[in-house]
Amino acid sequence: MTYLKLGEILILQGLITEKQLQEAIVVQKKEKGRIGEILVKLGMITEEHVAEALGTQMGIQHYSSKNLDLLKPQPDQGLEKSIPAEFAKKHCVLPLSRHLNSLTCVVHDPLDLLLRDNLKRISGCEINLVIATHTAIQGAINDFYFKQSNDGSPSMLDRAVERSYTQSKNNDLTALVKDDGGDTAELSLDKLIAKAEEAPVIKLVDLIIRQAIDERASDIHIEPFENKITLRYRIDGRLYNIPPPAPHLHLPIISRIKILAKLDIAEKRLPQDGAIMAKLENRSVDIRVSTIPTVWGEKVVMRILDKGAVPLELASLGFDAKQIEVLRKALMAPYGLFFVTGPTGSGKSTTLYAAVNETLDPTKNIITVEDPVEYKIDGINQVAIKPEIGLTFAAALRAFLRQDPDVIMVGEIRDQETATICVRAALTGHFVLSTLHTNDAASAITRLIDIGVPQYLLTPSLVMIMGQRLARRLCQKCKEPYEPTPEQHGGITFKSDLIYRSSGCEACKGSGYKGRMVIAEVMPIDDTIRALVSRGAGHAEIKDAARKNGMATIFESGLRLVEKGFTSYDEICRISVDT
Predict the structure, then answer these.
(1) What is the pLDDT of residues 92-135, one digit of tens each?
(2) What is the pTM of this model?
(3) Termini Cα distance of the chain
């Protein structure tokens, strides 16, 4: 059966037009939120329409507000104990009936998977969902949990709910009592491990990770605050809020992640780093885990390294044909220095791996030293640095030179010692690839000299320097064409009569973009640039010479991709420094 989106269902039912849907998508892009909520807010449809359409979309029974008798929970089943009053009110959910180990609940948002998991954990039952409007459910909750008896005093049900709620609040408070040392007195270690190994927690952590991978997220942020947890995914370079788990699940979730990453779950005062290998269908995904202590508990960030989602090939990353030709020519050099530069998060490591892939050859000995190893590649000897035992970049490089290498990849040059060893290795017959944190390609030369690399060593060793950024790709389903004018774009004229800008649709979740691509400036080192380096020329002079030799800057390369319809002018301006 074909899966229809909510907007498509509403159009088929004749409740909205295509034009109204597009108007709502534009608003959704600015204000976020779900498309149904936006349509109700704009007055195009009612809550009832959304509930009915969601029921159709999800294959869930819809309880109409015209028949409120359906929203009355079955008596004498102890349903008020299954779902506490405060939880029901906060999450707009009401238990209706229980049969053996199956609990039927009415919700207004059946897409909230975390709510379903929390309901299962709280009640200990399998959950069946039906759907109604937010207004109808809240009214039914008030009638069921908070209705007064005839004499105006709280009913027996109210008192039972109050006792249950007070007990749960007291239990929460015991986990936040300060001990004499000023640290937070939390659950015992044995209980914490037991909680982390409970089935609902295991499933919840698996759900958080799997959903992040499905959404193409690069990072997962789990952040504790006074009365809540924040869950955020970084998608295409930007953080998006995701419906979070209940606050009391923070400790079990963090403990479960620590167990998977082989970290010390008893250590909550110091930052820790670890790794998880996740199996997803027919591929493996590496996840780097980092924890830090905050005033409200430990924050966890998980970096997702999905090699299957990012082809490690130069042609797949966004380079144009001319740039790939220049890069491949440089990678064929028998020795020398090859640098990829850019700020944090600009995709340098991925490009470096793609470049190393180009050098793969059974006749070559390829060794890498990284912090940490991000992608594991067959045929390459990869080493992760461990500064605590003395295995630094410099120490590993000195050892590498006794390992008969042909190609050496260094994750990052951070100090003079590492830089000098790289330069000397390049001069003694090795091809060395590494990264630097600079704004553009020409700045890498002045950075190396500032670090302390002598000019007379740098000049003969350099082969190629490439600066790059990551630009978001326009969503191909909703990108909007328009005729550019010089007035709109700071006097810039385009070769194309039409270029594109972002719009926003359900496929890209209203952002107007989906995926990212490399925008690069490729600067081969020729005799002209070597002469400038030898006499100590500045960054601007080196950059001007490279442009005269045919180098397109990041901004100029970006404009070409705008003309081809891959990205927008606004996006290129956002990532460029030379506009």
Answers:
(1) 899 999 888 888 999 988 877 778 888 888 888 888 888 888 88
(2) 0.62
(3) 50
Please report, as a single letter, which amino acid is at residue 428: T
The tokens 């809540």 sit on which residue?
A: 228
Strand partners, 338: 433, 464
Which runs of consecutive H residues, i.e. helices, occur in 112-249? 113-123, 134-145, 156-174, 189-196, 199-214
3-state DSSP percent of the chain in helix, strand and coil, to 5: 40, 25, 35
**Residue 501 CA, distance from chain mean position:** 23
Instruction: Please report where in the chains the tokens 């970084």 appear, as a residue.
Output: 234
- Full DSSP string of 452-490: T--HHHHHHHEEEEEEEEEEEEEPTTT-EEE---TTTTT
Residue 100's nearest CA partner among 69, 66, 128 is 128
Residues in a beta bridge with 232: 221, 241
pLDDT value of residue 159: 45
Tell me which amino acid residue 18 is.
E
Q: Are 344 and 437 in contact (CB under 8 A)?
A: yes
Report the distance separating Cα 532 and Cα 340, nearest Å: 20
Which structure tokens are listed for 526? 């020729």
469 CB contacts (<8 Å, ≥6 apart)?
342, 343, 346, 347, 518, 519, 520, 554, 575, 576
DSSP string, 309-355: TS---HHHHT--HHHHHHHHHHHT-SSEEEEEE-STTSSHHHHHHHH
Sign of the C-alpha dihedral, residues 405, 406, 411, 413?
positive
Which residues are CB-neighbours of 176 under 8 A, at least 6 positions away? 184
Return the closest-CA partner of residue 251 out of 180, 303, 193.
Answer: 193
For the stretch 526-575, pLDDT in tens is 999 999 998 888 889 999 999 998 899 999 999 999 998 999 998 998 88
Which residues contact residue 488 at a Cβ distance below 8 angstroms, ignoring those fewer than 6 apart?
Answer: none
